[in-house]
Write a structure and sequence with these properties.
With about 375 residues, the protein is an alpha/beta fold. The chain is built from eleven helices and 19 strands. About 35% of the residues are buried. GO terms for molecular function: 3'-5' exonuclease activity; endonuclease activity.
Length: about 375
């Protein structure tokens, strides 16, 4: 069976101040063409269809168009909700849409109930594990501790239990939206840390033939059977080095996997350039970036006059301007933001406690801080569900 694996469409999201709906529509057209030209048997979309729980009308219309075009091809599509989606909204009318061959899986309780498709070699069971917010699904999966690994492990126990009841030789595909150990994040993904831990081990998914992951925006191979497709479009300058693509996965009769990367259309390349303003304006090596979306980091010791206007004369698509004067690491003028870069909320809180009283939090205090951050995240998740 030939499966096209994609995820993280983020319909409705802008890139800085640039409206991306046109580029997103271009991707949907490319997706439909790819399904037709490569004789795809099933499409899987591993979450974050939308960028937010209540998407703009234009994004909903584009999603509606995508569903109709995929249904018209007669190729089954399996989708799950991600952490950016409202599972309830995305899952509206799922039962009716099922009849058109579009299978929306947004209910955690249905983790062990697959969409079963068949080819010349028998059945393939597609299990959709929507994004599992630990605080919200803890009771459903009857786990004592609300953590990403515990709830995903419980969901996978249901998958394996169902698979064990099926005919010998039934192949399996799992769709999941999670941060799996070994994956490389970007600046575009929303933090899903719980209890100080965001990642789950790939071993959680043992026992199935292919795992189609969503959440991280870079296309990645964790094992031959566990892969991220990444987002089809870049949504931050941290993705400047990404090759945006989808996985074309061939699942053989014995469950073995071969996969090929298929490139997605690039509306405009990204470039991150760094130096003094005068150097950026004069360097001939930068000519290749003159038509790109640009993030410029200025290292001038003193902020120059009208930097954005001057940069735009050479780089008309400059979207982001960062000031980072080159100073010694111990210079007090080094920005607070630079000192915090790459640190989690919990680490920042620990540093603050240490700064205020001269010693960091002990084990009990660390647990209190962790519980406080988890409670805030759970409240945010509940508000998203209620919207």
């Amino acid at each position: 069976m030939r499966v096209l694996h994609t995820s993280d469409w983020h319909l409705g999201r802008a890139f800085h101040r640039v409206n991306m709906l046109g580029a997103q529509a271009g991707f949907i057209g490319h997706l439909v063409t790819t399904v037709r030209e490569h004789a795809v048997d099933a499409v899987v979309v591993s979450g974050d269809v939308y960028d937010r729980a209540v998407p703009p009308l234009a994004a909903v219309e584009l999603f509606d168009d995508a569903l109709h075009r995929l249904a018209d091809l007669g190729v089954p599509t399996v989708m799950i909700s991600g952490n950016h989606d409202s599972a309830r909204r995305l899952g509206v009318a799922a039962g009716l849409i099922d009849r058109a061959g579009i299978h929306l899986r947004t209910e955690p309780a249905a983790a062990g109930t697959p969409v079963v498709l068949s080819d010349a070699h028998g059945d393939v069971a597609f299990y959709g594990l929507p994004y599992l917010e630990p605080a919200l699904v803890k009771d459903e999966f009857e786990v004592e501790r609300a953590g990403h690994e515990t709830v995903l492990a419980a969901a996978m126990d249901r998958v394996r239990a169902d698979l064990a009841t099926r005919a010998t030789g039934t192949r399996s595909v799992v769709l999941a939206h999670a941060f799996v150990t070994g994956g490389e994040p970007s600046d575009s993904e929303r933090d899903i840390t719980v209890g100080g831990v965001a990642a789950v081990p790939a071993g959680v998914f043992d026992g199935v033939d292919y795992v189609a992951l969503g959440h991280l925006h870079g296309c990645q191979t964790l094992t031959e059977r566990v892969r991220y497709s990444g987002s089809p479009l870049a949504y931050s300058f941290s993705e400047a080095g990404h090759r945006k693509s989808m996985w074309l996965v061939d699942l053989a009769a014995d469950g073995s996997v071969t996969a090929e990367r298929l490139d997605c259309p690039v509306p405009r390349p990204l470039a991150r350039i760094r130096g003094t303003l005068e150097d950026l304006l004069a360097d001939p090596e930068l000519a290749r970036h003159e038509d790109a979306w640009v993030e410029a980091t200025l290292t001038d010791p003193v902020r120059p006059a009208d930097p954005m206007a001057r940069l735009a004369e050479r780089f008309p698509h400059t979207l982001s301007l960062v000031f980072a004067p080159e100073r010694a690491a111990d210079d007090p003028a080094v920005s607070y933001a630079r000192r915090l870069a790459g640190r989690s909320d919990q680490q920042i809180a620990h540093d603050f406690v240490a700064h205020v009283r001269g010693a960091g939090p002990d084990e009990r205090e660390s647990a209190v801080l962790r519980e406080a951050f988890d409670a805030v995240r759970a409240d945010d998740a509940l508000r998203e569900v209620a919207r």
